């Protein structure tokens, strides 16, 4: 059946966003969270998987990097066919995969690149070795529209101590401004002892602050993946960087606030990506 004019116009207005990241078998983070977030915020998600993790709400038990040649073939497949407006990058397993992703981004030149530097596990363990972190800084940061490190990741990127109080943020911000990327969104969710969660956009000499109230929940798995994917999706829809971050911050805050409506796993559960969708009442299901 041919599309109506309205249907055609709607499809043209749906931006395609690519996520390059690892797979989370538990569904709360990584590629799975990215696809949910992009879909929930108005985009069409496609994906390139860089690693396969054995993972649930209680932790990661194994990581299997995808062979570099297959990462490259996935990138060629999506870029050669789909009109990708924005790219979100998450977990990159090693230096070879980082270099391959950088080569393909230089080849295809997407309009926006949001890099979430997944380098530090919740336990504090480094997920990338120092050589891979150097490769990330050298190869990918210059291609990024925005990078979105949390406080432990910012410490790994800059070599500075982990910020544990707001008085340390000035030195951290100065070091982040020196990185070879267009802008940095420093996420302050790990800062202890505050009733709010601030993120700081560092762009040139300017700083913008995005604030949300903290939510008392243990179900925060996938927050970084979700926020960066939402930012990429809003950029693809034509919002300015500040507006894209503002909308994405509002979205992740609501997804966290609704997280306890889900009952997933026995550890740190996921945020509620589709909080805006109401379930069909059982009385209506019976009539379908």
Automatic annotation (TrEMBL):
Signal peptide: none
Claim: Transferase is one of the keywords in the record: yes
GO molecular function terms listed in the Swiss-Prot or TrEMBL record: ATP binding; hydroxymethylpyrimidine kinase activity; phosphomethylpyrimidine kinase activity
Domain Pyridoxamine kinase/Phosphomethylpyrimidine kinase: 24-272
Pathways involved: Cofactor biosynthesis; thiamine diphosphate biosynthesis
Domain of life: Bacteria
Enzyme Commission numbers on file: 2.7.1.49
Keywords: ATP-binding, Kinase, Nucleotide-binding, Transferase
Enzyme's top EC category: transferase
Annotated Gene Ontology cellular component terms: cytosol
GO annotation terms (biological process): thiamine biosynthetic process
Gene3D superfamilies xrefs: 3.40.1190.20
Name under which the protein is recorded: hydroxymethylpyrimidine kinase
Species annotation: Vibrio ostreae
